[in-house]
Write a structure and sequence with these properties.
The protein is mainly α. The protein contains 5 helices and no strands. It has helices at 7-17, 43-60, 71-87, 94-97, 99-109.
Length: 121
């Protein structure tokens, strides 16, 4: 939707789509996944979604007007997801070390993320 709507229209759409997105900068709006057993292969799906959070925020931000009050919450959530996603990449378990490393590279470098003009890095 960000690519087809102008910022003010996108802001209205986002309000309807994510009505709970806070306007006061609270990071707990979208907390990173908590994994109780990193040796369980299914946990990598949760950590991959955590690692994808900051990339999603990079896609949302250019679509909103620069004074949109939700930008602070989006940035705060992205920062907490980035920290949790990178911390999850360890060599302790095969399930996370090889696959989540790819997500971490995308996260840290920003490769493959579409920019405001629709061009990828």
């Amino acid at each position: 939707m960000r690519r087809v709507l102008v910022p003010n229209e996108f802001a209205k759409w986002l309000t309807a789509f994510l009505p709970g997105l806070p306007k006061d900068g609270r990071a707990p709006w979208l907390e990173p996944a908590v994994v109780s057993d990193p040796s369980d292969p299914s946990w990598r799906i949760w950590m991959a979604s955590t690692s994808a959070g900051p990339g999603c925020s990079r896609v949302l931000r250019p679509g909103l007007p620069p004074n949109d009050a939700r930008l602070q919450a989006i940035r705060a959530a992205a920062a907490s997801h980035r920290q949790a996603g990178v911390a999850a990449v360890t060599g302790a378990h095969y399930e996370g070390g090889h696959w989540l490393g790819t997500f971490a590279v995308y996260l840290v470098t920003g490769r493959g993320l579409a920019l405001a003009g629709g061009v990828s890095k």
